[in-house]
Amino acid sequence: MKTDACDNTCRSSKPALWLGILGLALLFVLLRWNNFNAPLTRDEGEYAYAAQLLMSGSVPYEQSFLQKPPMIAYSYALAGLLAPDVFWSPRILANVFAALATVLLGYAARREFGPGVAMPAMWLMTPMVLLPELNQFIANTEMFMILPLMATVAVYVRSRHSNGGAAHWLAAGTLASITICYKYTAFPLLAFIFAAWSFEEWRGGKGLRAIAGYCRGEFLPPRLCWRHFCCATAANGFGNAPLFSTATTPPRPSSGCPGCG
Known about the structure:
Elements: H1 2-30, H2 42-55, H3 60-63, H4 71-82, H5 89-113, H6 115-128, H7 141-162, H8 166-180, H9 187-203, H10 211-231
């Protein structure tokens, strides 16, 4: 009798689940569909130009003032390779990242709080990620960064519920490092996650041996991310990067056009 009741519950919940997923997908598209081909914003133009330099073999930090770490240039370059004739292709890629991050949020909510919380969490995230005023449809660093950030959280949640070890720390360290390569300001949140994780490991009597896996994952992506710029001997260009130039902005080169700044 108990098994029959469980089967009936599962059957009745499946249509509701699929309706919820369909409604969520429609909401996600409706909030964004009319903004994809809008003109590029100032920041998007900056990232797109850096990606063009990158794809041509040049060095963005040497020949342009890129205000963010290099992962944004790599992301725009990837979008340009996937759809070279569509100037708004980075927005499609950014929204794919946001959609995957929403799924990861649902996974984390389900593992932590139960099945009934996953769908409401995803429904809330879909409009909230566009706030304020539902105008965050541009392909900025935050829209790309949210996927590796949520993936880091998802790995942490999975480790908590599956007695994870060094492999989870390696994966989380890699994802956290990719997140920071999008934007440095993610560091405090990531530091809090890993501090809480380390405390739980210590409290569970596992020691901190798994942190070795984290360290291996943490330092590999930055080395790969910056490899192109280091090999291009762009030491002078690094002065234009935000890590080294936070107080002053270098003068813009003359364009040779009368009346142009």
